TrEMBL record:
Pfam families: HGTP_anticodon, tRNA-synt_2b
Catalytic activity as recorded in UniProt: tRNA(Pro) + L-proline + ATP = L-prolyl-tRNA(Pro) + AMP + diphosphate
Record keywords: Aminoacyl-tRNA synthetase, ATP-binding, Ligase, Mitochondrion, Nucleotide-binding, Protein biosynthesis, Transit peptide
Aminoacyl-transfer RNA synthetases class-II family profile domain span: 106-372
Subcellular location: Mitochondrion matrix
Taxonomy, superkingdom: Eukaryota
GO molecular function: ATP binding; proline-tRNA ligase activity
SUPFAM superfamilies: Class II aaRS ABD-related (SSF52954), Class II aaRS and biotin synthetases (SSF55681)
Any one GO CC term of the record: mitochondrial matrix
The protein, known as: Probable proline--tRNA ligase, mitochondrial
Length: 483
């Protein structure tokens, strides 16, 4: 391999170097052309995001509702996300996350970061490629069975692509010999790709083989302190889902192969959910059916309510681990008496890509995506008139409006797109906008040419249509929450 590389590399390098010197000028003008519309490319103006230029290869008019996609079982979110050019299937259980999805996911990650750091979480990033040694020490190398994606390196060493990081984080903390009780609780988390060898990947991003997860691990001085940390993480999860406008239930759960004594799932009630939940109509009792041994439908908590079964999509999971892993890897700290003690642990997951898909699943209509407001890839779509139509002259007003919004509302910077496909009627573009789910769609038509100027604003979530002046529009959009 090496000699070949030595032969090729200098030439490739030379060519690359030469080209980059020669074409610097043309490259920069290309970049300008790519983002700036023809009539707004004067120097003082900010670039406008044009729908015709966004890489969102949608099939809004081609894929029928019942088309089976790549032989996987489909659901509403998968169908809508593929039609809208948000995801593209690669191999079973794996997807390309296209630019609009990445924008949405980055927003979700910012919300998660705020909530996790709000309770003292510190973000790190651990290797996905994990040595079998660690997993053998915890005995999970055998316990995980076929779900663990295993591979060998060139030295015949066993590795896995990690689905979770209890072993890795505990051994990391164990390596710090000077950890003091004054530094606890220690909450470490990451948001990374995880892997699971699903036998039957299905439902798009809801059950894939490669996905993003937020996993946090806590280290505490005592069982009591660990329960307090556990509680504060559960509260942060509840706040997070409330901010996204998602109805989420916290249910008692089975501890599964992670182990430990106490566990809760965070479930979004949905028809396609794979978990069966029992909810009490009378009190806050909620449990996964797996954890309820009796066949009785009486609520064990209040005694008077009746348990009703519902289906749910699991979007979060918390576990109190005790010393299960800290004993194995010897994760210790020096206590107030200056003696070494083994840390009490907890672990807390959130399915990042799953939250996105589940939110689309529960909020959308059959025809179009509806986003949690904070997570929409773009907040506003401005629709100018059709070329050659009566209102054609309003096209300039639409472009000016986009600039005005960018100048007056810094929070909307990068959030406003102009649907410049003016060969299409306004009606057709509104249909597409409804399918893609921009929270606000502004039609710049005949009303924009009249005195007083009026813009038609469609609030997609409620379906409400308003006719507003420019000031009214700025006032409305100034209240949009972005992250
Ligand atoms: Zn009850």
């Amino acid at each position: 391999m090496e000699p070949i590389m030595n032969q090729i590399w200098p030439k490739v390098f030379q060519r690359f170097h030469r080209r980059s010197l020669f074409s610097r000028r043309s490259l920069s003008s290309w970049a300008e052309h790519a983002t700036v519309s023809a009539s707004t490319n004067s120097r003082h103006m900010k670039p406008t995001l044009l729908v015709s230029r966004l890489y969102q290869p949608s099939n809004l008019h081609e894929v029928g509702q019942n088309t089976s996609l790549q032989g996987e079982m489909t659901c509403k979110s998968q169908r809508l996300m593929q039609q809208a050019g948000l995801i593209h299937p690669s191999n079973p259980g794996c997807y390309y996350y296209l630019p609009a999805t990445v924008r949405s996911m980055e927003k979700l990650i910012r919300v998660i970061d705020q909530e996790m750091q709000g309770i003292g979480g510190q973000k790190l990033d651990m290797p996905s490629l994990c040595s079998a040694e660690l997993w053998k020490a915890s005995k999970r190398w055998d316990l995980m069975g076929k779900e663990l994606l295993r591979l060998k390196d060139r030295h015949d060493g066993d590795y896995c692509l990690a689905p979770t990081h209890e072993e890795a984080v505990t051994t990391l903390v164990a390596h710090q010999t000077s950890l003091s009780y004054k530094q606890l609780p220690l909450l470490l988390y990451q948001i990374t790709r995880k892997f699971r060898d699903e036998p039957k990947p299905k439902f798009g991003l809801l059950r894939g083989r490669e996905f993003y997860m937020k996993d946090m691990y806590s280290f505490d001085v005592s069982e009591e302190a660990a329960y307090q940390t556990y509680e504060s993480v559960c509260q942060a999860y509840t706040r997070l889902f409330a901010r996204l406008g998602l109805h989420c239930v916290q249910v008692q759960a089975d501890t599964g192969n992670i182990g430990g004594k106490l566990s809760h799932e965070f479930q979004l009630p949905a028809d396609i959910g794979e978990d069966r939940l029992l909810l009490c109509g009378n009190c806050s009792f909620a449990a996964n059916v797996e954890t309820v041994s009796s066949d009785s439908t009486d609520c064990p908590q209040c005694g008077t309510g009746t348990l009703v079964e519902s289906k749910g999509i699991e979007v979060g999971h918390t576990f109190y681990l005790g010393k299960k892993y800290s004993n194995v890897f010897n994760a210790t700290f020096s206590n107030a008496q200056n003696k070494l003690a083994v840390a009490e642990m907890g672990c807390y997951g959130l399915g990042v890509t799953r939250i996105l898909a589940a939110a689309i699943e529960v909020m959308s209509t059959e025809e179009g995506i509806r986003w949690p407001g904070l997570l929409a890839p773009y907040q506003v779509c401005v629709v100018p008139p059709k070329k050659g139509s009566k209102a054609d002259k309003a096209a300039v007003i639409a472009e000016e409006l986009v600039q005005t919004l960018a100048d007056a509302l810094p929070l909307l910077r990068g959030e406003v797109v102009l649907d410049d496909r003016t060969q299409m009627t306004i009606g057709k573009r509104l249909k597409d906008a409804s399918k893609l789910g921009y929270p606000y769609v502004i039609v710049v038509g005949q009303g924009a040419l009249e005195e007083p100027t009026r813009f038609e604003v469609i609030c997609q979530k409620t379906g409400e249509i308003m006719f507003l002046s420019k000031e009214g529009l700025l006032d409305l959009l100034g209240r949009v929450e972005t992250i």
